[in-house]
Amino acid sequence: MSRVIADGLSEAGANFPAMPQVGGDPIVESGSNADGEFTKWADGTICMASNASGNSFNTSGRISGSGMLPSPVINTADARIFGELDSFELSEKVTLIRMPLSGTTTFALRIYSATGSFVAGDENDTLINVFIFARWK
């Protein structure tokens, strides 16, 4: 079995020392799909970039959102999700709170207002750029 390692080059088997490295750790696989981008390291770490959209307005101070991961993870307890608001139109400060991954390829999160209330419809303007660090093996 061969793996694509960079710019269309392939290499037979799992010869990790010959693969590209970051900080001395070989990159096993990287790629992208409709759900975002990912990079897997030999030590089992995966880093993904994706996005989530607000999809429900729960209370005056909370919006829920969800998204799909570009690659599955196995250890959700150690997953870390970081996000930034991209197209949010409100002027008040907001805080992102991580929610547990709801499956191997989906995640959920909530946005809490730190200084004011959201109003119905604000969730439709929310796009959150999400960066996830987890385990793929």
What report would you give on this structure?
Helix content is 0%, strand content 55%. The strands form two sheets. Strands 3, 4, 5, 6, 7, 8, 9, 10 and 11 form a nine-stranded antiparallel beta sheet that branches. A two-stranded antiparallel ribbon has the order 1-2. It is mainly β and 137 residues long. A hairpin with a 2-residue loop joins strand 6 and strand 7 (62-68). The chain has strands at residues 2-6, 9-12, 21-22, 25-33, 36-41, 45-59, 62-68, 80-85, 94-98, 106-113, 127-135. It contains no helices and eleven strands.
Question: Any key phrases for this structure?
Answer:
single chain, 137 residues, mainly beta, nine-stranded antiparallel beta sheet
Summarize the structure.
This protein has strands at 2-6, 9-12, 21-22, 25-33, 36-41, 45-59, 62-68, 80-85, 94-98, 106-113, 127-135. It is mainly beta and 137 residues long.
Radius of gyration, in Å, reads 18 Å
Subunit organisation of the chains: single chain
Largest sheet, strands/sense/barrel? 9 strands, antiparallel
Beta strand count = 11
* Structural class by sheet pairing and helices: mainly beta
Regions with little confidence, pLDDT below 50 for 5+ residues = none
Q: DSSP helix count? A: 0
- Helical fraction equals under 10%
Topology order in helix (H) and strand (E) letters? EEEEEEEEEEE
Distance, first to last CA: 19 Å
Beta strand %: over 45%
